[in-house]
Write a structure and sequence with these properties.
GO molecular function: nucleotide binding
Order of helices and strands: EHEHEHEHEHEHEHHEEEEEEHEHHEH
CATH superfamily of the largest domain: Dihydrodipicolinate Reductase, domain 2
Number of helices: 12
Helix content: 25-40%
Number of domains: 2
Pfam family, one: GFO_IDH_MocA_C3
Distance between the termini: 38 Å
CATH architecture of the largest domain: 2-Layer Sandwich
CATH class of the largest domain: Alpha Beta
Protein name: Putative dehydrogenase
CATH topology of the largest domain: Dihydrodipicolinate Reductase, domain 2
Number of strands: 15
InterPro entries: Gfo/Idh/MocA-like_OxRdtase_N, Gfo/Idh/MocA_Oxidoreductase, GFO_IDH_MocA-like_dom, NAD(P)-bd_dom_sf
Organism: Alicyclobacillus sacchari
């Protein structure tokens, strides 16, 4: 089949037709170089409704979708634990995969997925594996990446990220039986809301060498997982990081401070400000004869072009182009999802054990704790179908 622009279409299947599945379908249906050959959900009524609305075929098992639809690529938008088996099955058949965040619930599962991809690439070297980290497309984060890669701040000393704009009501948590449970979701704010922030942290600053995590379980909601987290990171080169998030605070704050020898960058309220030091603060501290002197600095509001395409469809478009043979890199490659998961699991492991942990840590130890939490859970989930969920309201920068 040939698209209107003369290019060959990519046959795509969508697995998981919940709230985020609706987001994916809305842009997929408008892409000239994509033919949605099947949609899949274990809830038959959901699959039937999607298929009828978008003129495609419903499936109720991802295996049936893979066997009968003739798809080239799949977008995985199922609950977190199911990311791994669906992706591994796809890789075993040479199907390209674009997976929703997080890559998995715990590090061991993520490594299984990555290993399956590596094995499949031996048979099909052009096999594509992407992850939906659409916040990498946001202009302010792109500019921060550019500043850091260019070395404008010099050696970094501190990063503090307060992101409490993830406010969620009890109705949100009660809207699905899998939400905010150890067995259904595998965690709370670190697993559901903050994979983008954790990915952004590691994308900009790399992984720390040591983690101290403090997670509060059900502090603001009737849930059995974390809804408030404060973490402290130590990096080998001397930088420290602070990561403060919650779903229980309104109005919230999204403020990212990055401090280095040549000044401080602050991102907040859609503004990027660089307090640029005239010289290195390390050099000034060593050489100045004045005990209370400060480095001269200049307030500079950094211009950022916000009139550029962003979001899920940008990630998907780059993925589809790669499937068609483009050499343009993906927005985020699937294996990169491991690093944010290391941060999430490391924070929780530190909190559970009430100690600072080294990175890398024992992934078996964390998985064992998670399985014990599932086994011993006495939590009874109260669910309702009255909650109004618009996924566009959840995407914040």
């Amino acid at each position: 089949m040939t698209a209107a622009n003369g290019t060959h279409t990519v046959k795509v299947g969508l697995v998981g037709l919940g709230n985020i599945g609706m987001t994916h379908m809305s842009y997929l249906s408008k892409m000239d170089d994509v033919e949605v050959v099947g949609v899949c959900d274990v809830v038959r009524e959901q699959a039937d409704a999607f298929a009828s609305r978008y003129g495609t075929t419903p499936y109720y098992s991802h295996v049936d979708l893979f066997d009968h639809s003739g798809l080239d690529a799949v977008i995985i938008a199922v609950p977190h634990y199911a990311h791994v088996p669906v992706a591994i099955e796809a890789f075993s058949r040479g199907i390209h995969v674009l997976c929703e965040k997080p890559l998995a619930v715990h590090v061991n599962d993520a490594k299984k997925m990555i290993d399956a991809y590596a094995e499949a690439k031996r048979e099909k070297p052009d096999l594509q594996f992407g992850i939906m980290f659409q916040e990498r497309t946001y202009p302010f984060y792109q500019k921060l990446k550019d500043l850091l890669d260019h070395g404008d701040l010099g050696r970094l000393t501190r990063v503090t990220w307060i992101n409490t704009t993830w406010f969620r009501t009890q109705a949100y948590y009660d809207s699905g039986s899998w939400r905010a449970t150890w067995a259904g979701e595998g965690g709370g704010i670190l697993t559901n809301q903050c994979p983008h922030n954790l990915d952004m942290y590691q994308w900009l600053f790399g992984l720390p060498s040591r983690i101290s995590g403090f997670a509060h379980i059900g502090k603001y909601h009737k849930i059995e997982v974390e809804d408030e987290v404060t973490a402290y990171f130590e990096h080998d080169h001397g930088m420290v990081g602070h990561f403060i998030v919650t779903t229980g605070e309104s109005p919230g704050t999204n403020r990212l401070e990055i401090v280095g020898e040549y000044g401080k960058v602050v991102y907040e309220d859609s503004k990027l400000v660089f307090y640029r030091n005239r010289e290195s603060m390390f050099k000034f501290s060593e050489e100045s004869k004045q005990g209370f002197a400060h480095v001269e600095n200049w307030y500079t509001e950094i211009p950022v072009n916000v009139k550029v395409p962003t979001g899920h469809h940008v990630v998907a478009d780059r993925f589809i182009k790669a499937v068609r043979g483009s050499s343009e890199p993906l927005i985020a490659y699937g294996p990169e999802g491991l690093n944010g998961l290391i941060l999430a699991n490391g924070i929780m492991l530190s909190s559970f054990q009430k100690r600072m942990i080294d990175v890398p840590f024992d992934a078996d130890e964390y998985e064992s704790i998670l399985q014990e939490l599932i086994k011993r859970s006495q939590f009874v989930k109260q669910c309702t179908d009255h909650a109004v969920l618009n996924m566009n309201d959840s995407f914040n920068v």
